[in-house]
Amino acid sequence: THAGVEHLAGRLYPGLSGGERQRVQFARVLAQIWQEPSPGRLSDPEQPRLLLLDEPTSALDLKYQHQLLTMARALAARNTAVLVVLHDLNHAARYADHLIAMVDGRIVASGPPEEVVTPELVADVFGLACTVVPDPATGTPMVVPTDGRWR
Length: 151
Fold this sequence. Notes:
- By secondary structure, the protein is of the alpha+beta class.
- The protein has 5 helices and 6 strands; from the N terminus they run H-E-H-E-H-E-E-H-H-E-E.
- The termini are far apart.
């Protein structure tokens, strides 16, 4: 229900599109970590959990990118540590509480999105001139390229 893949239940996995496969994989992960409080359950629903996601929004269209990252935030609010690798800086800034920017395996910045996402960081890490403005919906930093030039 939470991953929105019920309509795919009668289809074989190899016949799914890349985005559908990505959503099914996320549903599988949710099934492994999701626990509702219930009488007689042996495991503790308050036990901390860890969710690792590597580029979970690849192959997803915008609606499902938002749905997946919103669910990840909801899980983080439910006693689950969520670590997500994203190359989309706007998604990272909008949905994360803490960002780590890396270059060649080295951490070059770490902290809240408002501190990490700066024009200088984007130029240094991505080689792109940009302006950083507040996202009109959330106030989180949003990267807007300022021209078509890059290093």
